[in-house]
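dude i think i finally got it to work??
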Amino acid sequence: MSKREVREEVLRARRLLGAEDVLRLSARVRDSLMSLPEFKAAKVIASYVAKKDEVQTAEIIRHAIDSGKRVIVPRSDLSSTSLRFHEIRSLDELQPGAFGIGEPSMKSPVVPLTAANMILVPMVAWDLRGHRVGYGKGYFDRELKSKGHALGVGLAFEFQLRDPLPATATDVPMDIVVTDQRVVRIGEAVA
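look at this
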């Protein structure tokens, strides 16, 4: 299957999830993520702001801020198809932005992605090598090239697994994938 075909198939399946299912499965992902020693140790977390059928990140962001971590979230630049990360101190700072996703104000401080210890990345589909299929515009892939030593953590529902995914040289694999059923550390034996 091509990336486009995988994307269409998985998005169709994801749209079938009810709001309660999204919240229930997202809570499992959140609990697994927050129990990771790398999450506990992270001082700066970069996180996407979730669409309604993605793994929800609001509680993760709220917990990170309440724990004293710095949180940076993306703001889309449609003209350059790029993301710029801004620090937020509350979810109340988000306002509707590109693609109907909450974004920080342009007045929020810009923080380079290299400052993050952990980057939470949305995934339309994923595989056991840490590869992901996104929405096809390349926003996150372009930014992940400059992630430095930050840990790339993909958040997904288990049913989004399609192994193996087609991959290209421009793809940046995740270091860890957290789903509602397991934590997959890329490069370690998978059970």
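The mean pLDDT is 94.
im so relieved honestly
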